[in-house]
Design a protein that fits this description.
Chain lengths: ~325, ~475
């Protein structure tokens, strides 16, 4: 019994890490996606400076999600990454280009346009690959004898492309609302206008993905619409409507922080929705979290890491954000 | 289809070898640099001398570039276990997964969390808090090395495990024998010292380069002197640590040591030390060998007449690729002794009071600048290729560890990695050399995206006394 509880606990921890990654790297990838629309010079420099001190920490949650999956559910880690091989490689290569651009664009003003393109394209590719990966996992992968048994392009489908585009738009929304919060002047105005349209686009994407998901398989349909579950699952769309309304209201009112908070809320609700769809599978319809879980002794060994160290991480990460609080200003942090 | 004739296992191995070798360059440098920066900031806080603050800033800019490349090439590694080695991940996951999770939790977050403050927070937090951030980053690099070397060592000398009904390696009881497996302490000490030496020689070369142009540059003098102390004091320690590591390997992985030595045939009356030659595994002999009789046994057994087995005492399907291991080992050892030579030369120069004037020493130090990187890669090749044909030594073969992927998929990704790494990291290395080519000045600025303020880490008064006239003394 105890081991079953720990399996659920570790699924929750991995879910938390993935969620933390999506919202934190989401806004800095989103800034990369919006980068071509920002004016060369002050607007781009402000946007870059607003994330330079924190992007590395944000990306560490991706390593935590991957490393955590290996540590707690190694079978799923192997199957999922093999099934989405080209997507993962594309994501990694995209992250390399955007990651090095943070330093390189300052080192080499002559080639700054090149590194700006690398930053933007890398962010876009990484976001698109993550979104398609999400769709590929939701639609299911072929598993035989504890191993991936499909081809290397099985992930490609209209549905996975839809989720890919949806994630790109959603990240762009996070990026725009972050810029509303952290910048001033023309950047701020620009982000506010972009935020409005991205808010609409995000809601449309969310609706499209939500409408398509329950039809992927009978199981998704049943868990969303059958009684009595529907009484609970119906709260998710309801909260989405409330968050969306608050988002547009706060945008109109000229609030600096609330749009970002509401964009985060939309992501959180989308994530809860995914949880409802997938649980208790880790590879939908093929491998449950219990099939993939490491033995009890490995789960116990990692407990101090989860119970003591993760709160510590949240504390000093919060401190680092606090040090760089407020508007980034036109001349970087000083 | 293109690439179909390739062996997917070889392609997956090539990809892992390529990406890990490229990755390893950056942490080998950043482990050493982080500690060097910690030392510089501590010296600045203690003495108030501006030269330390300026050197801190000078190397901080370089550290930022190195660290960024280490992060992005490291993310690749954390996913590659799953993309290309899914069977290994499934089978060894219950043991290595938790260790790597602890690396992320205790090291990566620590580094990333404090890096922003270290790089951009000089004027945002107090001096002591900034120093604390530097210390946390340095500590993070060392904790990271500890966990990942524990994982690697477990793959070399697995201990404390049982095998369950799914064929997975699982903890047999306590985690201590897993973490502190037999080769872990030796490998950890040898690798961390290697990172320090690599950094010392890179720093020394930069100092030497600027000394050749201007012997009076105080920053160049200080960094060259500090680097040469490291070379003189730590190179001999490293040679002892390497020897101890070798004896440990002989105990647990004798086949690897025999491949390193090129000992195909058993030596009942004591093994020679083969200096050079061409290993010929087909004929089980070393062609054109130059050897010193009995020295091999003297080193490995501390007795010139002690018998040693040969590779032919073991089945061929347990041999690693002998020529690679043989040569990479010689490159590493050769560089180790060259480092010792530079260290001793610097002591002589210090004794004769010409450390800053002996231009041949400076030229030699420049030549040795990249040597640490070559040595760590060669050492890594020795131990990892020497682990073949297994991923978990003696228990799980490499051919049985690989993901069920078609050759074209792996070939395409390998090609993409090669192109992207050469463009992205090639540019990065060019920028590093560009930064290093600038002499360390008295008014060293912080990273360029953070404009300076008077209240920063360098007090104007301490910079003012830093004049070449005084420095020449």
């Amino acid at each position: 019994m105890a081991s079953i509880d720990l399996t659920i606990f570790w699924a929750a921890i991995i879910g938390f890490a993935v969620m933390a990654y999506v919202v934190m790297d989401g806004f800095d990838l989103g800034i990369g996606i919006l980068f071509p629309t920002l004016k060369v010079g002050d607007e781009r420099d402000q946007a870059m400076n607003s994330i330079a001190p924190v992007w590395d920490g944000n990306e560490t949650w991706l390593v935590m999600g991957g490393g955590g999956l290996l540590a707690a559910f190694p079978l799923a880690y192997g199957i999922l990454l093999t099934a989405t091989y080209p997507l993962i490689i594309a994501m990694l290569l995209g992250l390399i280009f955007r990651g090095v651009a943070f330093e390189f664009r300052w080192r080499d003003p002559r080639h700054r346009p090149f590194w700006d393109v690398a930053f933007s394209l890398g962010s876009f590719v990484a976001a698109l690959a993550q979104g398609i990966t999400l769709g590929a996992i939701l639609q299911g992968v072929r598993v035989e004898n504890d191993a991936y048994a499909g081809g290397w392009l099985d992930w490609l489908s209209p549905f996975s492309l839809l989720t890919g585009v949806a994630v790109v738009i959603g990240y762009a929304l996070l990026g725009a609302t972050w810029l509303i919060w952290k910048t001033e002047g023309t950047s701020h105005e620009h982000a506010r206008r972009a935020g409005f349209w991205l808010g609409i686009a995000t809601l449309l994407s969310l609706a499209a993905v939500s409408a398509a998901t329950p039809f992927l398989s009978y199981d998704y349909w049943r868990r969303w619409f059958a009684l009595p579950g529907v009484l609970l699952t119906a709260q998710v769309p309801l909260l989405v409507v409330i968050s969306a309304a608050t988002f547009f209201w706060s945008l109109k009112r000229g609030s600096h922080r609330l749009p970002f908070a509401m964009a985060l809320a939309l992501f959180l609700l989308g994530f809860v929705g995914l949880g409802v769809s997938i649980y208790p599978y880790v590879v939908p319809r093929a491998v449950t979290i219990w099939d993939a879980a490491v033995p009890y002794s490995s789960q116990v060994f990692m407990l101090p890491g989860a119970l003591v160290i993760i709160p510590l991480i949240l504390a000093y990460t919060g401190w680092a954000y606090w040090v760089f609080r407020g508007k980034v200003g036109t001349h970087g942090y000083h | 289809m293109l690439f179909d004739q390739f062996d997917p296992v070889i392609l997956a191995r090539a990809q892992f070898a390529f990406t890990v070798s490229f990755h390893f360059i950056f942490p080998a440098f950043s482990i050493g640099l982080a500690s060097f920066l910690m030392m510089l900031e501590a010296l600045w806080l203690k003495t108030g001398q501006g030269v330390y603050a300026n050197l801190y800033r000078y190397w901080l800019k370089i550290f930022a570039v190195v660290f960024g490349m280490g992060v992005v090439s490291g993310v690749v590694m954390s996913y590659q276990f799953g993309t290309n080695w899914s069977v290994f991940s499934h089978k060894a996951g219950p043991i290595i997964g938790p260790l790597m999770a602890y690396e992320v939790l205790t090291a990566f977050f620590l580094e990333a969390g404090f890096l922003g403050v270290m790089l951009f927070g000089m004027n945002k937090v107090g001096k002591r808090l900034h120093f604390f951030a530097t210390c946390m980053v340095a500590l993070g690099t060392l904790i990271s090395a500890t966990w990942i070397i524990s994982v690697n060592s477990w793959m070399q000398t697995p201990a404390g495990f049982a095998i369950n009904e799914k064929g997975q390696f699982v903890p047999a009881g306590s985690w201590l024998p897993i973490i502190f497996n037999p080769s872990f302490p030796y490998r950890l000490v040898h690798t961390v010292i290697a990172a320090f030496l690599t950094t010392a020689f890179a720093v020394g070369a930069v100092g030497a380069w600027h000394l050749l142009k201007d012997r009076g540059n105080l920053g160049a003098r200080k960094m060259f002197s500090m680097a040469m102390w490291m070379a003189a004091l730590v190179s001999p320690i490293q040679i002892f640590a390497g020897d101890a590591h070798g004896l440990n390997t002989l105990e647990h992985q004798p086949i690897k040591v025999l491949a390193m030595e090129g000992d195909y045939q058993p030596s009942p009356a004591g093994a020679p030390l083969i200096l050079f030659g061409l290993p010929n595994s087909a004929e089980a002999r070393v062609d054109y060998e130059v050897a010193i009789p009995h020295l091999g046994s003297l080193i490995l057994k501390h007795d010139p007449y002690a018998p040693l087995p040969g590779l032919t005492d073991y089945p061929r399907d347990q041999w690693p690729p002998v020529p690679i291991v043989f040569w990479s080992f010689r490159i590493m050892v050769g560089i180790g002794f060259a480092m010792l030579g530079i260290g001793l030369w610097s002591l002589l120069a210090r004794y004769r009071r010409k450390l800053y004037d002996w231009s041949w020493l400076h030229r030699a130090a420049i030549l040795m600048g990249p040597s640490g990187f070559v040595a760590v890669i060669a050492g890594w090749v020795t131990t990892e290729v020497g682990r073949q044909p297994y991923t978990v030594y003696g228990l799980l073969r490499t051919v049985d560890s690989v993901s069920p992927l078609a050759a074209p998929a792996v070939a395409a990704s390998l090609l993409a990695f090669v192109v992207v790494y050469f463009v992205a990291f090639g540019a990065g290395i060019y920028y590093l050399l560009h930064l290093m080519a600038k002499p360390p000045g008295a008014g060293e600025t912080a990273p360029p995206n953070v404009p300076q303020r008077a209240a920063g880490i360098t007090p104007a008064s301490s910079v003012a006394v830093e004049t070449p006239a005084r420095a020449r003394g």
